[in-house]
Amino acid sequence: MAFRGSVQRLLKVVRVREYGPFEYFDNAPICNYVGILTVSRLAKVLSADDFFSFVLGMKNVIQSADLKKYALNVFLNEEFFTSIVKDLKELPPPSPSKPRSSVLTLNPHGYPTESAAITELRFIGSLQELKYRVLYIPTIPNFPLVDGFFFMDSPRRTLVGLQITTASAHHTTTSTVNQFTEHLAKYFEGWEELSREMSWDIIYIQHENSKKISKWQRCGPVNTKNLSDDEKEIVAFWDGKVHQYRVML
């Protein structure tokens, strides 16, 4: 009974109306923080197909924007991770950057082994240690730039950003990139120093029926002449230190 009571404290009852006037009640995680950590355990023991089926089964009790964050836990599944790296397609970077293989391809065994849910900064008592091979999934509403990310230290120190999208283009802005780095600086201890020699790999994850992203996704406007010096610095970083890849599921 004690175990049952503990489980019940992690759940809430929600009312679901799917079709017409009929409705029913179902269980949902008490919050996304708990839900993401709970689902991450299942991702390690279920097959990728079974895991996706489980997550899709929650579509009536979890908002779609949050559901894709739950789905990101599939990256904890070694079989899934090693299978998708073979299908990564690089989006050609702007000159003078040269194409290069993703760190996922070069180190397929560097996949994340656990998840950590990033909550609102006001709930964090102190700066957190940056850990490699941990899948960080933000529960903060409107978290900028990516849906989740993790860090790899081999063959090079890299931030791997994961973005689920159905659009054929997913350009970003300098303010979005700036907000993202500001969040990381407020969350991770020593971020300024750790990030100096860190490259970024952005992975755009698309459904096989989506219109494929085929070109480099820029940061900022096409014409950068009117940007401030700070904005130009962000664009230069994006064009020089970021590499982009697409994978279809």
Strand sequence of the main sheet, in spatial order? Answer: 3-9-8-7-6
Give me the secondary-structure category: alpha/beta
Helix content: 25-40%
| SS summary, helix count | 9
The shape is globular
Total strand segments: 9
How many structural domains can be distinguished in the coordinates? 1
Please summarize the sheet with the most strands: 5 strands, mixed
Cα radius of gyration in angstroms? 19 Å
Low-confidence spans: pLDDT under 50, at least 5 residues?
Answer: 1-7
The succession of helices and strands, N to C, reads: HEEHHHHEHEEEEHHEHE
Report the average pLDDT across residues: 87
How does this model look, in words?
By secondary structure, the protein is an alpha/beta fold. It has one domain (31-248). It has 9 helices and 9 strands. The protein has a 5-stranded mixed β-sheet. The chain has a two-stranded antiparallel ribbon with strand order 1-2. Helix 7 crosses helix 9 (229-241). It is globular, with a radius of gyration of 19 Å. The protein starts with a helix and ends with a strand. The model is unreliable at 1-7 (pLDDT under 50).
